[in-house]
Write a sequence for this structure.
């Protein structure tokens, strides 16, 4: 275990180089203190590395990450988990816009809220299925152009009945993957993009939700009871809707 | 060099702002620290600041900040200024030599009031007189550019990284109750001194991250009221829209916001009848003032600050409060670096303004 103080490390390259050289010495666990805005922390990091981050990491945290585990004690900024491949990110706080941007695999857990366009164009292939679990609420355009994987929104911090778990235009342009929203069955259709289809939740879904809500409880050490059968499930209306967009043969 | 509008370079930007609601003044160190943190969002082709409350000893005078390409055009412009204005003081804006700041123009400031005889002849208000004069110089005096023209405020900008521009103008020597800053990564156009943000007119200033795809519609709209878009850059037109709607048309700020980032028709349809009709009227009358495209902006004026996103939040914006101060920025870390433990920190929704007015008017 090694501790790196990021205070006054104004250039993100220097911080990331220090992380790289620490890993080269065989250290598997790193604690970063006083992080403030440094970008690309954990970029491309591979298996078995664990980093605890105290402060506010900069944009594109864990970009292209490939197996490492990052835990942030603070808020994330924009594009957390940009195009990440495998691994896990745990955020003890809120996140900015485009969480899980084009994510290809791995897991992101956000304790509280996420901004706009969470899960934009996330995708899956064979055993690679990205998962985003959000404890609070999500902003507009959740799962925009989503092509695979799963987004689960728990809405644990809703203030009252009128408070919505998700913003407008949810799932706009979705053509793969699944979005689960807690207790959303009464939501007006206008909340969703026109490519979204509400589907019935089945036993497999409940098992899936149970697995990931349990992980959420464990990572954040929170206990709560929610009725998993009340989750709304949203998928794409059709398969491959853009196949004729650029050519017609 | 090819100027603004003659070449296209696609690209991002950084914005930051601090205001003390009580009007208490503080120097430029914090705003420089905040914008410096977002170094990667700029590329060295433009940086700038707006500062409010910096000229209390000349608070009844318009502070004209002007860039000149050479002394010939300065002499020519001076003739016009001395003919139109009573000038309390004129001087070079103090700067310090830095290796990172090159090709600077002549940078001059004048504290002026329109001559009474001029106003009587033309029968217009002081503000309109200044407005006409700024438009005239920027259009007809090639090589002269008025980049700041408000009372008790000023813009400081140029080509370079914002941290260097702040040092260049020695902003630690000024005290303001509100600061805004911009780091430029020129979108669509090359960096030149006049093209750096903020863009100002009278006491309005705008720093902007993004691009305005409705630019030409907006430009044609403000041109009908005598605004001339000389700089062929999208941000300029936002400044003029605020001036037109709020100063000239005397609309309250919230109405102006409902015009600039009007709710979608589908949203308007869901509302109650009174508000629905209201919004429909605004969208109909002012359809050409709708700003479209990705943007986050911080607008300054002598009453306070407005931070605003486009309706679908295509650019980042974070706000925070602590005590009497309100902070807004492109990144949360740029606020936390100057504000330990903010009382509240949040991401405003698209089209939802953060409006911070001074508790009492400063002028």
């Amino acid at each position: 275990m090694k501790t790196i103080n990021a205070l006054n490390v104004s250039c993100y390259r220097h911080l990331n180089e220090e992380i790289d050289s620490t890993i080269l010495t065989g250290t598997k666990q790193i604690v970063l203190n006083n992080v403030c805005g440094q970008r690309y922390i954990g970029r491309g990091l591979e298996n078995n590395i664990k980093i605890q981050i105290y402060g506010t990491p900069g944009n594109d945290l864990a970009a292209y990450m490939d197996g490492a585990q990052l835990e942030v004690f603070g808020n994330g900024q924009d594009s957390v988990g940009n195009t990440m491949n495998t691994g896990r990110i745990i955020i003890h706080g809120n996140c900015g816009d485009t969480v899980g941007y084009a994510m290809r695999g791995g897991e992101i857990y956000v304790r509280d809220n996420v901004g706009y366009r969470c899960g934009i164009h996330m995708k899956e292939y064979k055993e690679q299925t990205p998962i985003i679990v959000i404890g609070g609420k999500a902003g507009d355009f959740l799962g925009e152009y989503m092509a695979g994987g799963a987004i689960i929104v728990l809405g644990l911090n809703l203030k009252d009945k009128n408070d919505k778990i998700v913003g407008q235009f949810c799932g706009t342009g979705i053509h793969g993957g699944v979005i689960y929203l807690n207790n959303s069955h009464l939501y007006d259709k206008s909340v969703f993009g026109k490519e979204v289809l509400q589907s019935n939740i089945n036993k497999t879904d409940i098992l899936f939700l149970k697995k990931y809500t349990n992980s959420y409880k464990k990572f954040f050490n929170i206990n709560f009871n929610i009725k998993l059968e009340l989750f709304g499930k949203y998928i794409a209306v059709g398969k491959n809707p853009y196949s004729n967009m650029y050519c017609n043969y | 060099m090819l100027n603004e509008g003659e070449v296209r370079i696609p690209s991002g930007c950084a914005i930051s702002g601090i205001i003390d609601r009580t009007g208490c003044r503080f120097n430029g160190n914090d705003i420089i620290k905040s914008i410096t943190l977002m170094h990667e969002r700029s590329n060295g082709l433009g940086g700038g600041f707006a500062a409010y409350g910096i000229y209390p000893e000349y608070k009844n005078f318009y502070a004209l900040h002007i860039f000149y390409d050479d002394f010939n055009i300065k002499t020519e412009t001076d003739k016009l200024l001395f003919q139109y204005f009573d000038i309390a003081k004129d001087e070079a804006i103090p700067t310090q030599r830095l290796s990172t700041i090159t090709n600077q123009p002549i940078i001059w400031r004048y504290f002026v009031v329109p001559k009474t005889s001029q106003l009587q002849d033309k029968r217009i208000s002081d503000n309109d007189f200044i407005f006409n004069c700024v438009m005239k110089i920027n259009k007809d005096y090639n090589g002269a550019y008025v980049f700041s023209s408000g009372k008790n405020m000023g813009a400081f900008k140029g080509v370079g990284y914002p941290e260097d521009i702040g040092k260049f103008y020695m902003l630690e020597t000024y005290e303001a109750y509100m600061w805004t800053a911009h780091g430029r990564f020129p979108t669509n156009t090359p960096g030149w001194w006049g093209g750096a943000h903020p863009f100002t007119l009278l006491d309005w200033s705008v720093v902007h991250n993004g691009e305005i795809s409705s630019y030409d519609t907006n430009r044609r709209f403000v041109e009908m009221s005598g605004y001339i878009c000389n700089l062929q850059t999208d941000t300029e037109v936002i400044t003029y829209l605020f001036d037109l709607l709020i100063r000239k048309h005397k609309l309250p700020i919230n109405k102006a916001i409902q015009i600039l980032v009007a709710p979608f028709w589908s949203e308007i349809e869901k509302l109650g009848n009174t508000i629905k009709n209201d919004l429909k009227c605004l969208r109909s009358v002012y359809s050409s003032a709708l700003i479209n495209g990705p943007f986050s902006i911080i607008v300054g004026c002598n009453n306070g600050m407005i931070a605003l996103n486009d309706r679908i939040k295509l650019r980042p914006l974070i706000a925070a409060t602590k005590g009497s101060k309100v902070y807004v920025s492109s990144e949360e870390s740029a606020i936390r670096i100057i504000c330990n433990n903010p009382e509240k920190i949040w991401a405003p929704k698209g089209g939802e303004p953060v409006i911070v007015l001074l508790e009492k008017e400063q002028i």
